């Protein structure tokens, strides 16, 4: 079985509080990848609450974003349409421990031949989830499709791709 993990394709990361032109540009590629993926598709959703600015993350990144049930928290419509009936993991940290536990349960029943990640932000949540996956499933080939990822900036995206490669994650 192949697994695709779609990371945080939410309005605030695309054209909202933390959006970028690069993130807007990948939306059609991400939607197409989800539509045509032959395997299990999972997704994460960054989820914060009104007290976000009082959290450690909020103090270090003082831009309110992905506040639960707001428009910025919702998945981009083109992506949400393709993720109907797919498992979505809400997370209030960069990486999803719940995703890891879910995949451990899947491994009890099925062999996972590869895991691929796409989404935003390459330098924060994509890399965090990739490293969690690599640490927990070191023998499963792990891929990041750079054409379906965008970072908080172009430089940060490129730096993250270099780190991913150095951690034996296949960047394509």
What does this structure look like?
The protein has a six-stranded parallel β-sheet with strand order 3-2-1-4-5-6. Strand 5, helix 7 (154-166) and strand 6 form a beta-alpha-beta unit. It is an alpha/beta fold. 41% of the residues lie in helices and 21% in strands.
Briefly characterize the structure:
The chain has helices spanning 11-14, 21-36, 56-60, 77-82, 97-107, 122-136, 154-166; strands at residues 2-7, 40-46, 87-91, 114-120, 142-150, 170-171. By secondary structure, it is an alpha/beta fold.
Q: Could you tell me the mean pLDDT?
A: 97
| Strand-residue proportion | 15-25%
The profile of the biggest β sheet is:
6 strands, parallel
Compute the number of helices. 7
How many strand units?
Answer: 6
Q: What low-confidence regions span 5 or more consecutive residues with pLDDT below 50?
A: none
What is the terminal separation in angstroms?
19 Å
Keywords:
alpha/beta, single chain, 6 strands, 172 residues, 6-stranded parallel β-sheet, 7 helices, 41% helix
Write the layout of secondary structure elements.
Layout: E1 2-7, H1 11-14, H2 21-36, E2 40-46, H3 56-60, H4 77-82, E3 87-91, H5 97-107, E4 114-120, H6 122-136, E5 142-150, H7 154-166, E6 170-171
Parallel strand pairs: 1-2, 1-4, 2-3, 4-5, 5-6
Helix pairs in contact: 6-7
